[in-house]
Amino acid sequence: MMAVERKFIEDSILRFRIAEFMKEQLERAGFSNLTIQKTPLLTLINAEVTNPGRVIGRKGKTINEITDKLKSEFKLENPKINIGIVSKPDLEPQVVARRLVKLIEMGKNPRRMMHSMVKSIMDAGAVGCEIVVGGKLAAKGGRAKSFRTIAGYLPKSGEPARWVKEAKLTAYPKAGAIGVQVRIAPPDVAFPDKKAAVELPAVIRASEDFVDKESVAPAVQAPASVAPVEDVPVPVAEEKSAPKPKKKAKVKKEGE
């Protein structure tokens, strides 16, 4: 039993090390998400980035170098890397957090950048989002502060909180380290207490309207039954024969 538990722990540690290595290698390409699937034949690594061209490189040079490092450093026999592009970067917390870290390190105002990013996230269709920045936001030697900007609906406990995407990064400006936390509720998740009305297709809606009209329409009464009419003989006019001509009376002549 101990050997089985040790195997599970070693696999989890290996997955964590591979994920951290891939994040470091794909940082300049706009790393967003990573999944690792291990099979008896190969180890499939699916990565999502905002700029796939930087990962692949010229004639696949960069991605081949990453594959060779996975074989040598992590002893993977047949690693295979699939690169996908992020369709909506504003809905990926890793991308948003990396963008905010770069702006803070450039000396931009964190609060202004936070409000701007929250607006862009909600415009992209998110159900809710939250950005928290904490650290020495003032001048060097100042006290640490934390700012939070939140919008929409964002569960923080229970089962619905598992569907919220989260990313944590650290910025290193001259004043000191500043932590950045981004949490986003994606638009394709239906929370139990926030079920939206489902829009029905036009065909189904039209058929339902037709059924409703039929159910509401007053019932047409059947015509009252009419007693059968007995066959009454119709009198037929008798044909009258033409009158016979009257015979002329013979007049007797005198002397006869």
Characterization of the model:
This protein is an alpha+beta fold. It folds into 2 domains: 2-86, K homology (KH) domain (GMP Synthetase, Chain A, domain 3, 2-Layer Sandwich), CATH 3.30.300; 90-185, Ribosomal protein S3 C-terminal domain (2-Layer Sandwich), CATH 3.30.1140. The protein has 6 helices and 7 strands. The chain has helices at residues 2-25, 52-56, 61-74, 93-105, 110-123, 202-216, and strands at residues 31-38, 43-49, 79-85, 128-135, 145-152, 165-171, 178-185. The strands form 2 sheets. The chain has a 4-stranded antiparallel β-sheet, covered by helices on one side. The protein has a 3-stranded mixed β-sheet with strand order 1-2-3. α4 (93-105) runs antiparallel to α5 (110-123).
Describe the structure in brief.
This protein is of the alpha+beta class and 256 residues long. The protein has helices at 2-25, 52-56, 61-74, 93-105, 110-123, 202-216; strands spanning 31-38, 43-49, 79-85, 128-135, 145-152, 165-171, 178-185. A 4-stranded antiparallel sheet has the order 5-4-7-6, covered by helices on one side. Strands 1-2-3 form a 3-stranded mixed sheet.
